[in-house]
Amino acid sequence: MKTFQYERAASAETATTDAATPGAKFIAGGTNLLDLMKLQIETPGKLVDITRLPLGDIESRDDGGLTIGTLVPNSDLAAEPRVIEGYEVLSRALLAGASGQLRNKATTGGNLLQRTRCYYFYDTATPCNKREPGSGCSAIGGFNRILAVLGTSDKCIATHPSDMAVAMRALDATIVTLKADGDRRRIAIADFYRLPGETPEIETVLEPGELITAVELPKPVEGARHLYRKVRDRASYAFALVSVAGVVVMDGTTVKSAALAFGGLGPMPWRNPAVEAALVGKEASDATFAAAADALLADARGFGSNDFKIPLMRRTLIASLRELTGA
Amino acid sequence: MFDFGDGKTNSLTMDKPHPVSLLDTGVQGVISHPLDRVDGPLKVSGSATYSAEYQIDGLAHGVLVGAKIGHGKIVSVDADAVKSLPGVIDVVTDFDTFIKVPQQGGETGAPTQGVKEIDYFGQIVAIVLAESFEAAREAAQLLPITYEKSEGTYDFAAHRDEADKPSDAMIPAHYTQGDVDQAMTDADVTVDLTYITPSQNSAAMEPHASIAVWEDDALTLYSSHQMPTSGAQQLAKSLGISAKKVRIIARYIGGGFGSKLGIAPESVAAAIAAKQLGRPVKAVMARTQVFDATVRRSNTEQRVRLAAGRDGKLTAIGHDSLTSNLASEEYFEPVGIGTHFLYAGENRSITHDMVRLNLLLSGSMRAPGEAVGMVGLECAMDELAEKLGMDPIALRKVNDTQTDPEKQVPHSSRQLSRALDDGARLFGWDKRHAKPAIQREGEWLIGMGVASATRANMLQQSSAKVEIHPDGSATVSSAMTDIGTGSYTILAQIASEILGIPVETITMSLGDTNDPPAAGSGGSWGAGSAGSAVYLACEMLRSNLAKAMDVPEDSLTLKDGMAIGDNRSRAIGDLVGKGMEATGEIKPGKQEKETTQASYGAHFAEVGVNVVTGEVRVRRMLGIFAAGRVLNAKTARSQCLGGMTFGIGTALTEDLIHDTRDGKLVNRDLAEYHVPVNADVPQLEVHFIDERDIHANPIHAKGIGELGIAGAAAAVVNAIYNACGVRVRDMPITCDKLLDGLPPL
Asked: Which residues in chain A are closer than 8 Å to B663, comparing Cβ atoms?
């Protein structure tokens, strides 16, 4: 492990300026970062510890929404009555992830920023454009069973590993940040992540020193059914092969509204308006569901060992829609 | 090493049956009882000292460096580039002496040495020493090494046609009897199927770790070993010093499962570095290095041919396997080891051929042979039963035999049919639908499967010393180990039962080569071998106590610290003067040839297959086992639970994947190499059938540690077929392999 400086942030403002220097990183739960540092995949010169900042509350807003402090642990968020009541998909997604011990440490903001679990990203003996820009992608042409089928580039086919972020994407969360220059930003989760393109090492729109302070959820969708379904290689402590987060409102047998996001498919929590367009205003039926699956997977492309994700996602989506619509 | 001749040694060679055991006549009443582990409180309170935890003054921290090519050689190591980093002491490598691979279990020579030539990705080539672990790790990461790459063979499928016959090792590589081809042609019903199992890693919780301490020319190695006695010999040979100058201390071992049978690269590297530095050196393999550079269970490709009459009686069994190993190595996964004796059948072909690959060493992992070989045999039996229209249990019973079908000698004790029958009753086998894909609960298709269990029994030369102290307490010492199995406890129970000394007053000393030599823990022989050594020592002490009491041995009763006989009663401590000691020594003998010895049992599994995704979840399992005397019902049960859990891993999750482009191991952490976690392991039920094996050893126990895994995976696989009607012959059965066969939504 490379030697690093450690600073405990006195305030969110000083944290952002401390972390704006090159090579600096925030640390909260550390469940991902510390592993990566031990393996020398991340080699920050400085860690700015934000765990003592007052960013650990969950607050109801006047508009009926919920503001989740960035330091709220995954366990607490999953067990929060207001989350279970209004955002069941989030609670379910959180509990589908990691292990009890990890969820106790992992934070809301940190979860959004998890790095990929690509085998080759994790191995400094192999080329990886995300870890070492320009070195090449070992996963293309290699073993890529857990990697992406949507949103890939010829530079990177990594997936985003979070379950929580998939639910947040279906819930239209907004990420609230504080920048080093003191400005605050509110970033829709739809705009938060970046596709790999030519620069897979850049995963979000966050600027140096920019700190996630909270995640806002809009007012709960009334009369919605929630679902988080995760397909995995073992019953616990395994990343999603594919997953679906769904929030659906029915009007009789017609789909009134649908919000669907997907894990395990792409480099970011995946959402495609065409999927929802194929559903809304339509009769809940297998034909409708098949059209939604077609819309989702139209551009899907496997890389060999992950080809199965395409039929697997299709089946999982159809079964999930049956459950969500009661069809 | 086994040369006592001091008049204090009771030695027995198992040339004859041993019909009477003092464990049946003892009255202390502790043998077989489900005693808690005597070392349990130390372990749960963190005060059991594992190899890497010894606090030693002046310790330098070593971090190993693995090669970053799959095949080729080292041109140069630029140690100067990292020596100036803060805290770094030195970079040590010894191209001739460093070991290329770990040693296999029980060998007394050095493993393949020399690391300049790289034969597999991750091969340990150097050790970086620093004042702190972190500094050593940083320098190890940065150490510039220049390689010259050459073509390697990494792809089993591409090279399978180049397989050769390995030399005969644990079992003959090729065995044939009669004419399997002809029998296949002549039979009423046949199956001819190919099963695949991937490479696996033992994934023991504790990584391989050594602390090397030199005092003049004598080396003490605190190290995690299953077999310290032979480990010390391997280490001495590797270093070119006398075995008398090597002491291995392995008091507590955080699991081995075969991966710690022989010495691993960190031991020799630590020893050489400690010598060069003139200070103690600790080397702990990182988890990734345990995966990259210790030992794997070989992948296997198994062609299984079975021929049977309409009555199900087998006329032929063919079990022809391909496995893989490095070109320099002789060990092959003995896939057919259980096939030799499990079922009757006149015509037999059991062969093992080897594909030479540039991948890390393949060697023993829990139940080498049976753990994967019984996937092939027992799944093929299931497929044959279906073809015959027979119940899978009935098919197995029809082919049960009390005579070894190859050696034509009796089985020493064998209750296979009873295990199948009792297990079926306890499990509720009568509720199974013979036709697959019948039972459905919501999205889940439910099915049941069965498989026989067998594991060859072995006895290995072992010794132990038992001392009775004047205060009536006792000490048992042996270079035997407890790798988490319960050796500490069962050996204390054996001594307690025979000597009438309470377990609480018996001090156990295991895992130190300064104590009497023993074969250690491996091959499920530990309890039978070391247990017999303790038995024999206690037998002699009992005889001496009778003399001290001046009563005939057969009228002496020892209980709760008292010796009773001839209407007299004395404290045992009062009979031993300044102390009384004896050493017991057991050796295998003619009984091994005159009988075929194995443990038997049956596995039952009920699984759910998700009809949407193909995800498989085991709903319940039941194992029923006959392994001679059960020495401790609790630790024996735990062994079986562990084995059955391994079976779930083999069937569903474990898959060590190498990149076929360069031999690089792809999934080398516990997040991506999937061993079953708690949520994957449902209610497991374990039953034992009462049994004594008088041919095995004086304690009448057979091996149990690996019995629980043998056949367990096959029961799960067979249950998957019964649940959903999709037959997958390529392990592990992950959801993607079932997907195509599942009904449309």
From this structure: none
